Amino acid sequence: MRLSKEEKPYTYADYLTYPEGERWEIMNGAPYMQAAPAPIHQAILMELAKQIAVYLTGKPCRIYPAPFCVRLPQGYEKNDIEVKNVVEPDISIICDKSKIDDKGCNGAPDMVIEIISPASIKTDRVIKFNLYEKAGVQEYWIVEPEQRMVSVFQLQKNGRFSRPEMYTDEDSIRVSLFADLEIDMGAVFAQR
């Protein structure tokens, strides 16, 4: 939910001033306060994170569930605090260790998963979709708990996301970043 009508563009410097315990994101210079997730959201997040974390054990990529700060610089910023896109994806998978610092991730994760809630539909499907595409996220999942559906977008060579591949609770989804990782969506959506 966008909160400010001010013309001033917000940056990572502003993000650092928000009260501890509140979840904020800044997208295209506008601040958005995040609502507390519902129990179903958290149950789905935990099952997805569990399946991915087990697979990544002993591998170079890492999974980071929310809250985890991801800064998406656009290349024109003079320094880190000028970044106007600061998000907290539900799940980030990062394979390039140089992007990780003591503040979170600086640059595009390899994969992002967002779990839609009623308050985040527009943000996840439009604003974050465009941010993740522009930043170069290789794979983006939008999980819809109520519909028991997942839309999977893969970044193509032209820098645009593909048309979505759609899955339900009856499917397993092969993660394109890893040749042998399949997520059992039946187990994920059984968490209701």
TrEMBL record:
<feature type="domain" description="Putative restriction endonuclease">
    <location>
        <begin position="13"/>
        <end position="185"/>
    </location>
</feature>
<dbReference type="InterPro" id="IPR008538">
    <property type="entry name" value="Uma2"/>
</dbReference>
<dbReference type="InterPro" id="IPR012296">
    <property type="entry name" value="Nuclease_put_TT1808"/>
</dbReference>
<protein>
    <submittedName>
        <fullName>Endonuclease, Uma2 family (Restriction endonuclease fold)</fullName>
    </submittedName>
</protein>
<dbReference type="Pfam" id="PF05685">
    <property type="entry name" value="Uma2"/>
</dbReference>
<dbReference type="InterPro" id="IPR011335">
    <property type="entry name" value="Restrct_endonuc-II-like"/>
</dbReference>
<keyword id="KW-0378">Hydrolase</keyword>
<keyword id="KW-0540">Nuclease</keyword>
<keyword id="KW-0255">Endonuclease</keyword>
<dbReference type="GO" id="GO:0004519">
    <property type="term" value="F:endonuclease activity"/>
</dbReference>
